[in-house]
Amino acid sequence: MRLLLNWLLSAISLLIVSRVVPGFYLRGFTAAIIAALVIGLVNATIGLFLKIITLPITFLTLGLFWWVINAFMLMFASKLLSPDFVVRGFWPAFWGAIVLSLINMVLKALARDVEKA
Predict the structure, then answer these.
(1) Which of 7, 25, 26, 95 has the highest count of CB atoms within 10 angstroms of its CB?
(2) Measured in whole angstroms, how far is the alpha carbon of residue 51 from the centre of its chain?
């Protein structure tokens, strides 16, 4: 059940990011659900591998390089899901990754609080 909730919250986060970040486009809720699934799979496979091999650079940049990796993962997912999910360039992907992480964090914290109540 928690997995489905996280998937739904990620899709909602993607919809919010598409409204906030210029150059980050999503065509509807169905596309958001599919994009959330693909982004999760890409981050769990390729993203994990990249984060492991770039660990020294991540330490040197105090973790900021992870935003770059997340941006590239969003761009890769965008290439797979075009035209329903489009990220137009590195900077929209970079800012989208940051905003997506923040919104995801807030929504999951709210869901945790509701679950405890």
Answers:
(1) 26
(2) 15
The region, left, alpha or beta by phi > 0 then psi within -120 to 50, assigned to residue 25 is beta
Span 64-103, pLDDT tens digits: 999 999 999 999 999 999 999 999 999 999 999 999 999 9
Rg of the chain over CA atoms, in angstroms?
A: 14
Cβ 96 vs Cβ 71: under 8 Å: yes
Other beta carbons within 10 angstroms of residue 117's beta carbon come to: 5
Mean pLDDT of the chain: 92
The two tokens of residue 111 are 């869901």
CA angle 23, 106, 92 (to 5 degrees): 15
pTM equals 0.90
Report the alpha-carbon distance of residue 22 to residue 93 in Å, rounded: 10
Q: How far apart are CA 49 and CA 54, in angstroms?
A: 9
CB 69 within 8 A of CB 42: no
- How far apart are alpha carbons 69 and 92 in whole angstroms? 13
pLDDT beyond 70 at 35: yes
